[in-house]
Amino acid sequence: MNRQAQAVVLLLLGGAVIRASLTDLYLNYVKEGLRPFLIAAGVLLVAAAVMTLWHELRPARRPEAAPAGADGRAGVDGRAEQAGHTGQGDHDHGHGHHEPRVGWLLILPVLGLLLVAPPALGSYAAGQAGTALSSQQRQSDYPPLPDGDPVQVSVLDYASRALFDKGVSIGDRRVRLTGFMTTGPDGQPILARMVLSCCAADGRPVKLGLTGNAPAGLADDTWVEVTGRYSDQVTRDPVNDAEIPHLDVESWRQVPAPKRPYE
Amino acid sequence: MTAPERAAADRPDPGAVDPAAGPVATAAPGVRREEPAPVATAAPDVRRDGPAPDGGAGRGRWLGERIGSVEVLAALLVLLIVFREPMARALAEPRLQTWTTVFVSVMVQAVPFLVFGVLLSAVIAVFVPRSFWARALPRHPGLAVPVASAAGVVLPGCECGSVPIAGSLIRRGVTPAAALAFLLAAPAINPIVLTATAVAFPNNPEMVLGRGVASLLVAMVMGWLWLRLGRADWIRLPRRPELDGSSRGRAFWAAVRHDVIHAGGFLVLGAMAAASINVLVPERWLQTLADNPVLSVLALAVLAVLLSICSEADAFVAASLSQFSLTSRLVFLVVGPMVDLKLISMQAGVFGRRFALRFAPATFVVAVAVAVGTGAVLT
Predict the structure, then answer these.
(1) Is the per-residue pLDDT at B312 higher than 90?
(2) Number of domains present in the structure of chain B
(3) Which pLDDT score is estimated for B132?
């Protein structure tokens, strides 16, 4: 890969990162807080590409390169020397052997971001991993739920209150949660939401069993908003043997995928 | 690469050239003009020149008269845009789709750390004079190791950034033992990582202490081990002629370009491996290992290597592996930032394969031993 091609790859990578972070695409892969760093990194990549092209294409390059070849330093590089002598003098080929070929691989993330743009982790990933609630994250006390009827809570919040607080801080309140549908090991419907701490590689599902008027006939990965009350029913996730709390559903409706797919 | 070239490359100062290199240089013009490449010298390249040899340079140059990398790149991109639809359909299969999501997100997560790490390493390579390191680090290498390990505490970053920085430090004359101790310590015990660990284990503050102490110990032990057993010729930093002789601005951007492309390429390899493991290894396999104390330590140590999770995030994953003992999860936290697939891939790229093949397994063994010991004391 010669230097011009490297510059193009840097430009593409920087452009792809900037584009992903200016649209909401990046939220499918990382936390929101990374955005300023992504933009800065993208700008730096573009700057590196522009400076590389500037140094490569400036006519002043050639007279400088010639003495460098003559002082013996480039003499080690048989090919550089030969390129100069045979007059095929394409500068970037002269330095071919330390221009890393592995750099071609950087086209893959560019493709991933610009052409494929894979969706956020969904039902498949949720089925592979065990529910993320462990006694480690148990808090000592849970503050009362905010006002509202029904009150909007996250799947993670509901699940930890239901499991570790035995639903005490939920009481008889109606709650509304948003998540995607996935099918449990016994075919029962499960409401799941992925939790990220850094990037999708560490994404883990929080799973919620549904009783009562549970959504039926929906394909996996369909996003729904469910309204319901605390249920003391608990099952175990066969993947990691952790407890899965339940929600007694009163009503549900299908919703479009949220802008922030992770909690 | 010919033997003299290799010798020159091994030397800390790339400016010095073995006089034996002369014949190569003078022999080259003797080759007939039509013959594109000195095949005799190009062929050994393939075997010796590190993990990413440009072994086909001869062929490339023959084609290069008409088709250069830019043209190949352009053709590739056009093809991909044309075949976008069938490609997207092929990737819709859930397993493949999850793979793509994980791969892309590992890359997106790592790019800022990679770019900032590369910038810092380019600053070290171009703007910080060699004399600075001589003054900043104790002269005795045995003392420089703990100082460099402690210096790792102040650099918040993940492991992808610290590999090029360590390469730059060695290039600038820092003793490899100290640079390697820094390489291991920086991603493992910086404030961000320790805070993340405290958040992930609210009921076990001893995990934060254990992680800090064990990681610092491993970094120092590896530094001293290198002093006793390490051989300078295992480390083969690629020759970088662009770093000397040209203006500072030009050298700086050349270093940035080279490191992003080089380390970034190996990062892609590592991210692909991590995504594959993520998709292929179902978590329920781990469940069966959790009950045996020895197997659980080994399982999480190997998992840390395979998963290649960023050091800022691994504490949350460790917290969720609640079926495992605290000691085995401490092993996971100590091994992860020091040895993992993407790090091994990047180390092989930056320091050479001979180095990575020895350094990574040694670090793995030391990290597991120290973490088990620390875990036994704390819990």
Answers:
(1) no
(2) 2
(3) 82
The H-or-E segment that residue A183 falls in is strand A175-183
Enumerate helices (H) and strands (E) in chain B, giving the number of each. Answer: 20, 0
- Which residue range(s) make up the domain with B318? 98-378
- A193 to each of A34, A126, A139, A182, A205, how far by Cα in Å? 21, 8, 20, 10, 6
Residue B90: inside a domain? no
pLDDT computed for residue A99 by the predictor: 58
| Pair A113, A129 in one domain | no
Q: Are residues B231 and B172 in the same domain?
A: yes
For residue B3, is it within any domain?
Answer: no
Both A97 and A159 in a single domain? no
Q: Give the model's confidence band at B4: pLDDT under 50 very low, under 70 low, under 90 confident, else very high.
A: very low
Which residues lie below 8 Å from residue B302, measured CB to CB, with a gap of 6+? none
A141–B contact, CB cutoff 8 A? no
Residue type, A115: L
Please indicate, yes or no, whether residues A94 and A114 belong to a single structural domain of this protein: yes
- Tell me the average pLDDT across A55-65: 61
A15 touches chain B (CB under 8 A): no
Which residues on chain A are in Cβ contact (under 8 Å) with B308? 201
Instruction: State the residue for tokens 């908003």.
Output: A225
> Percentage of chain B with pLDDT > 70?
77
Residue for token pair 């919703």: A255
A117 Rama class: left (phi>0) / alpha (psi -120 to 50) / beta: left
The partner residue sitting opposite B313, judged by closest CB among A122, A199, A239, is: A199
Q: Which among A118, A140, A174 is the end of a domain? A: A118
Average pLDDT across chain A, whole number: 81
